[in-house]
Amino acid sequence: QLQASGGGLVQAGGSLRLSCTASRFKFSLNAMSWYRQAPGKQRELVAGITSGGSTNYADSVKGRFTISRDNAKNTVYLQMNSLKPEDTAGYYCYCVTFGVAYWGQGTLVTVSS
């Protein structure tokens, strides 16, 4: 299971840090990802991190967002800086372990202009 937190309302240019804590599986062995879905739009990949710590980002967030993980805490983070109104969305953590996909419940990020 995945439990996400950290969303909220922030002004453009501000920062937020999202957290997603995993339970009931071996977190350190799994790649983790953050997705987002804005109203009326498809869910899209924001960032991913492998078990070895390699990262990838959507072009729209490169240089502004940073994904990281703390295996001791079974937690993956998404540090979001220089937020823009177009970053407004529900943010979901995601992983696949032993062929089973898990989604976090989502945390809402709203960026005001």
Main features:
113 residues, seven-stranded mixed beta sheet, four-stranded antiparallel beta sheet, 11 strands, 54% strand
Task: Please give a structural write-up.
This protein has 113 residues and is mainly beta. It has strands at 2-5, 8-11, 16-22, 32-37, 44-49, 55-57, 65-70, 75-80, 89-97, 100-103, 107-112. It is built from no helices and eleven strands. Strands 2, 4, 5, 6, 9, 10 and 11 form a seven-stranded mixed sheet that branches. It has a four-stranded antiparallel sheet with strand order 1-3-8-7, with no helix packed on it. A hairpin with a 6-residue loop joins strand 4 (32-37) and strand 5. The chain starts with a strand and ends with a strand. The model has no long low-confidence stretch (mean pLDDT 95).
Topology:
Layout: E1 2-5, E2 8-11, E3 16-22, E4 32-37, E5 44-49, E6 55-57, E7 65-70, E8 75-80, E9 89-97, E10 100-103, E11 107-112
Parallel strand pairs: 2-11
Antiparallel strand pairs: 1-3, 3-8, 4-5, 4-9, 5-6, 7-8, 9-10, 9-11
Global outline: globular
Please report the total strand number as a whole number: 11
Determine the number of helices (DSSP H or I, runs of at least 4 residues).
0
Helical residue percent? under 10%
What is the rounded distance between the termini? 34 Å
Would you identify the regions where 5 or more consecutive residues have pLDDT less than 50? none
Q: What is the residue-mean pLDDT, rounded to a whole number?
A: 95
Largest sheet: 7 strands, mixed
CA-atom Rg in angstroms: 13 Å
Structural class label: mainly beta
Pattern of helices and strands: EEEEEEEEEEE
Strand content: over 45%
